Amino acid sequence: MTELKILAISGSLRDGSYNTALLRAARKLNPGGMTIELYRGLGDLPLYRQDLDTDSPPEPVADLRRRVAEADGLLIATPEHNASVPAALKNAIDWASRPAAESPLPGKPIAIAGASPGAFGSVRAQQALRQILASIGADVVVKPEVTVFRSHERFDGEGTLTDDFTASLLAELLTALAGTIRPLTR
């Protein structure tokens, strides 16, 4: 069986981000058969501007597009900013989805998770992200929903996931993502 290549994108630019920690936990909980690479270039992307979207886009944009195209699937962890996705994450999606005829996102299997210290986790951000991804034709994994609420209680001081229930949901999400990708790779 071919090893699946998963690109993991954290929607947070914060040092010590719970969402980045969630992606590191996903790498440890990997059910096997996949390589999970953490994308670290979110903060390097310029704001989307069509004037820059040429045959020779800025290097961080070209790198993002290449990595998304090479990945069998994406795992996105999003915090919630003002009841929606962070601007940096939306910006990355805008760059990856252009030009529409060449975008690798339509049909791309994508799993979503998110962590927030609030009582609702990242429920509203994930809902907004699902809508954005559906509009560009991505194949979004529906279940399980991994909305880590009160995230400061589920990670230790070093950013290690300590909550067994969250770990089990995250492992299920990875299995569901692999199950979405495998039929496409046959």
From TrEMBL:
GO terms for molecular function: FMN binding; oxidoreductase activity. Residues 5-148 form the NADPH-dependent FMN reductase-like domain. It holds the Pfam family FMN_red. One of its GO terms (cellular component) is cytosol. This is FMN reductase. It comes from Amycolatopsis lurida NRRL 2430.
